[in-house]
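Researcher: Hi, I'm a grad student and pretty new to this. My advisor asked me to get structures for two proteins we've been looking at. I'm not sure of the right format, so I'll just paste the first sequence and hope you can take it from there.
Model: That works fine. Here's the first sequence with its structure tokens right after it:
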Amino acid sequence: QVQLVESGGGLVQPAGSLRLSCAASGSIFPIYTMGWYRQGSGKQRELVATITRGGSTNYAGSVKGRFTISRDNAKNTVYLQMNSLKPEDTAIYYCNFRATPTAAVVDEYWGQGTQVTVSS
């Protein structure tokens, strides 16, 4: 059974920083894409950032320039460095891993979520 374990969430003041980590345990196919999503209260889940096995990154416009995603392929771990945090960044953050066992199939794995609260 695959399990994604998240850490790093918490309460931080505006303009502060946090670093999230997410590591996979259990048997799993090699991960092609790792990413982070978030869901604020009363809002739909949205993409924050993704990174491919080769290191290509993609960011939501609202976080570009403030957040940095990175990965350690040997450890099946993804990180999200969040700087210059704003109250609107408050949400539950979920890590997401995507594997491609075949060209036609994509397996997705999700973390349980970690709360990030930005407030003074």
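Researcher: Oh nice, that was easy. Here's the second one.
Model: And its structure:
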Amino acid sequence: QVQLVESGGGLVQAGGSLRLSCLVFGNRFSINAMGWYRQAPGKQRELVAIFTSGSTTNYADSVKGRFTISRDNAKNTMYLQMNSLKPEDTAVYYCNATVVDGYRYLEVWGQGTRVTVSS
């Protein structure tokens, strides 16, 4: 069983930076892919950045060059460094993992952490 706990959200002015953390509890070796998603008010949840099953990274076009996804396996933690933040980055950010469970793939979500960027 994998559980994800996000932290690091908050209020920041446009142009500022935040670093989000996602702490993984449970068997991280069962994780096939892992990434960050966000959901702004009134909008659908969207992919921000992801480590694929091949450990490559992909980013949404809107955050390329500003956000960096990384992980520290020794700390069982994934990060999202967000620089040059814009008001349109305001959203609840969720950590996500695709977990292999036998012959199934399960989606695991954290509780979310709110990021508010003021203009």
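Researcher: Is there anything I should tell my advisor about the second?
Model: You could mention this: The mean pLDDT is 95.
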